[in-house]
Amino acid sequence: MAIALSALVEEANNYLNVSRIADYCPNGLQVEGRPHVQRIVSGVTASQALLDAAVEANADVVLVHHGYFWKNESPVVTGMKQRRLKTLLAHDISLLAYHLPLDLHPEVGNNVRLAHELGITCEGTLDPTDPKCLVWVGSLDNPESPQDVARRVHIALGRQPLLVEGDNPVRKIAWCTGGAQGYIDQAIAAGVDLYLTGEASEQTFHSARENGISFIAAGHHATERYGVQALGQYLARRFAIEHLFIDCPNPI
């Protein structure tokens, strides 16, 4: 069974409240392909590797978290950008991308789905009055050592995380997927035991160490694999079409 591309895009846009969220890139349909959809291939980033895999899988739509046309990037279509767009256009494949709307969503969002993978009970965002707050807070059922939490992350994500060990056992956790190390000060102010994100900067170590908080960098790609899978599964159920998640490994 095939459905109209326009219906798929409308459903995804409405479900993620795209019109209400300002972002650094266009959310929704970024490249238009064939008008009907039977199979979605999802992945974290619209890399050449994912596009080639989508062609091999006979995809009609590629659904990603990291798409194209970012603020302040060059508008010229040369080199890597030319090759990627050429692949999509030559095979009549649409590109559907959702950045911040996919981070924020309370059901299929990256942050909520990561908490599910790690066994963290979600308690909401650090600022419930701000609909654009990206940092979530929650807790473990029982206190664990920082090393045990790092092992939990390793097992769930299949990747050895970077751990800066704090002073206390961990029960209350704040987290934000991807490149969100800059939010560590908000986590410290909230009094959590551990802050978890995808990446780390040089100063992150000092902020964690001098404030007695544990910090885990679990990988940008690794922490953002789950939202796009959940969105793809939602759309597949909604329209009785096929969905295939393809993980193109990325150690960062």
Automatic annotation (TrEMBL):
> What InterPro entries does this protein map onto?
DUF34/NIF3 (IPR002678), DUF34/NIF3_sf (IPR036069)
GO CC annotation, single = cytoplasm
Domain of life where this protein originates: Bacteria
Q: Could you cite one Gene Ontology molecular function of this protein?
A: metal ion binding
Where a divalent metal cation is bound, by residue? 65-66, 103, 220, 224
Q: Which SUPFAM superfamilies match?
A: NIF3 (NGG1p interacting factor 3)-like
Could you tell me the keywords of this UniProt record?
Answer: Metal-binding
User: In which family does this protein belong, per the annotation?
Assistant: Belongs to the GTP cyclohydrolase I type 2/NIF3 family.
Question: In its UniProt entry, what is this protein called?
Answer: GTP cyclohydrolase 1 type 2 homolog
